[in-house]
Amino acid sequence: MKALVISGGGSKGAFAGGVAQYLIEELGKQYDMFLGTSTGSLLVSNLALGKVEEIKAVYTSVNQSSIFSNCPFIIKNKKGVSNISINHFNVLKNIFKGRKSFGESGNLRKLIQNTITIKDYENIKASDKEVIVTVSNLSLNTLEYKSVSECSYEDFLDWIWISCNYPPFMSLARKNNYDYADGGLGCMVPVEEAINRGATEIDVIILETEVNYINRLPIRNPFSLITTMIEFMMDQIEHQNVKTGKLQAKNKNACVDIYYTPIVLTTNSLIFNKEKMTQWWQNGFDFAKTKNQSNRI
Predict the structure, then answer these.
(1) Which positions ≥6 away from 102 have C-beta within 8 Å?
(2) Which has the minimum average pLDDT: 146-150, 172-176, 203-207, 210-214?
(3) Is 26 within 8 Å of 55 (Cβ atoms)?
(4) Is pTM beyond 0.85 here?
(5) What's the pLDDT score for residue 249?
(6) Cα dihedral across residues 237, 103, 69, 74: positive or negative
(7) What does DSSP say about strands 33-37 and 130-137: parallel, antiparallel, or unpaired?
């Protein structure tokens, strides 16, 4: 059984889309299982349907307003570097409304519904492909993997949205009497889950460099502190996921091929810049092409 696994990574998901496009359209790979976390969960349904151009159009056209119904920060560009600062008005508005997060991602939920139609959902369920997204159950302190085969249409869209809700900047979802958030809080790269579900050949797209090249700029405000802390923790989770996945693959005789980003794409994956994301998509496609051509030599 063949599986495609895509990690979390916010706007960097555009790079993953380019890699997946090359694997599916140029190499003709046929996957039985698609697993995603966070931004990966946004990609997997369309990839399972072969609707690459449709999901590419989304990733190369979104901006902050496509994601946030109430954006908690302001993006400032200085000497080519993007930094975030607190949008005090929007944050206070959320607090006064009794929200549990600094910002709201209601527009992302609408975007998901526009991207994955009821017909798409029915076509996936009618196929022999399994599509799975990762969510974090904060109430029970557990990870949960939601398969399209086990969900209604609206529920599946909710789980995709929840998988992408990066706390505390995006919506905290209350569903089935539990609080849910970004799957990346517990599992950035669900390789082990793919193996546990029977995958023996797995292509994994990880939206980080294999070796750490980041030397972050000094922290300037509470928001940059929080984002830096969360990204640090998620990086550690990601490294652990990969180690565990490789060990599980060895024990189960599964073959794992990993695609890391060759360079640092961004140090803040909550900034959605359509020009950069368009370039990242092409970078992902070109990188996958180069990697596979070098493997043949």
Answers:
(1) 72, 90, 91, 94, 168, 169
(2) 210-214
(3) no
(4) yes
(5) 93
(6) negative
(7) parallel
Looking up tokens 């996945």 gives 245
Residue 178 vs residues 102, 163, 216: alpha-carbon distances, Å: 19, 14, 35
- Across the strands, what pairs with 151? none
Give the C-alpha separation, 71 to 53, whole Å. 28
> Each residue of 44-57: pLDDT tens digit?
999 999 999 999 99
Token digits of residue 106: 């209601």
The string of pLDDT tens digits covering residues 233-291 is 888 899 999 999 999 999 999 999 999 999 989 878 888 999 999 999 999 999 999 99
Per the listing, tokens 């082990």 go with 192
Structure tokens of 167? 């706390």
Residue 243, exposed/middle/buried by CB under 10 A (0-12, 13-18, 19+)?
A: exposed
Residue type, 140: L
Closest listed residue to residue 162, CA positions, set 101, 71, 117:
101
The CA distance from 117 to 25, in Å, is 22
Residue 22 DSSP label: I
Q: Which residues does 72 contact at the CB level (< 8 Å), separation at least 6?
A: 86, 87, 90, 91, 94, 101, 102, 103, 169, 223
Q: What is the pLDDT of residue 156?
A: 97
Q: Which two tokens stand for residue 286?
A: 């070109």
Name the maximum alpha-carbon separation found in the chain: 61
